[in-house]
Design a protein that fits this description.
By secondary structure, this protein is an alpha/beta fold. It has two domains: 152 residues, Aspartate Aminotransferase, domain 1; 220 residues, Type I PLP-dependent aspartate aminotransferase-like (Major domain) (Aspartate Aminotransferase, domain 2, 3-Layer(aba) Sandwich), CATH 3.40.640.10. Helix content is 41%, strand content 13%. The protein has 13 helices and 14 strands. The strands form four sheets. Strands 2-10-9-8-7-3-4 form a seven-stranded mixed beta sheet, sandwiched between helices. The chain has a three-stranded antiparallel beta sheet with strand order 11-14-13. Helix 2 runs antiparallel to helix 9, helix 3 packs parallel to helix 9 and helix 10 packs parallel to helix 13. It is globular. The termini are far apart.
Length: 400
Amino acid sequence: MAIAKRMDLLGSETAFAVSAEAANLASTGMKIYPFHLGDINLPTPPSIVSAANEAVKSGKTGYCPAPGIPELRKALGKDVGDARGLSYGIENVSIQPGGKPSIGKYIAAMMEKGDVVLYPNPGYPIYESQIEFYRGVAYPYGYVNTPEGLRLDFNAIEEGIKKGAKHIFYNNYNNPTGASSPDEEIERLANLVVENDMFLISDDAYFDTLYDGTPKSIASLPRMYDRTLTMYTFSKKFAMTGWRLGGAIGPKEIIEQITRLNVNMESCTTHFIQHAGVAGLNAPKSETQEILDRLQGRRDILVKILNGIEGVEAHMPEAGFYVFPKITNLLQKIGFNDVEEFRKVVLKETGVSFCGRHHFGRPLETETDSYIRLAFSGIGKGDLQEGMNLFRNWIDSNTK
């Protein structure tokens, strides 16, 4: 039987291929230091687990409304709205089985074949994959490395607008780079969206994993409320990666179309897990603060060690789980020309497993530097330090 040709257009998350390599080595008895995947090795807060168990016991195991149970839609709309100084009612929320489904559903509902869609690259690879699968034109924009951190490449964004882009994906507190936008950058992007009659999809996966200060949302800016779809996930803040619970929050007209796709694709998000989500949104802050505190401790150690290695330059991410160090000078020092070759050799000889920049979108022609991504959400402090010491010692022993 022939596979449909459209499947040739579908990409993947190649970070999972790195996971498979690491797992194969682990099966031989080698200790692996997992910096490759943004999973969380911390327990889901007990109030959420208890709520899920109670929901199962009470029979919340059947079908439920396609857009989600009213209790969760109301709670999520309030939570997202309060954090952004906005008002979202139940009609503005569609519950999803994870944060990822909102990407494809927005594209399927709102993008016509041949439409130009702007997306961050390096960025979450599913943007590119879904745009191309639905036969849109995926137009990437990158980042500029500055002393203050990575900043949006507005030259590329404006060029995409000239090509006719009417949709743009924006991931503040970005995966994989850890880049976050200062106020003036968010305002500049919002102005471009409004002036060019565009719509913005704000991937807020790491909005609630900010370690200091108050998180910023582009939806809060003037004239952006009706031009922004916010994608929400319970995976990060609540350590619920495998529970698969998220939501789309935005204009009623778009939410209705996304919910129509819910009916066709899943019928509904798992009933009892939605009750767990309600418990999470109502849980004491101390439960989620403990998760953030432990992640912040890992982040601080990792960045300090990386910046202590000659040839490595790592910015301190304000939010999220990832450090995205520039290793251009390091590769030159140890005689590697290719990040992928470097990654594979390090994994094989030390057990330290991480991703390269190329796992997060096709590298742009304008790029001249080399980067890797290290996730610190799935590795404890002890193993983190041990793995980084092995990495540093390996570099020292291979310096030419």
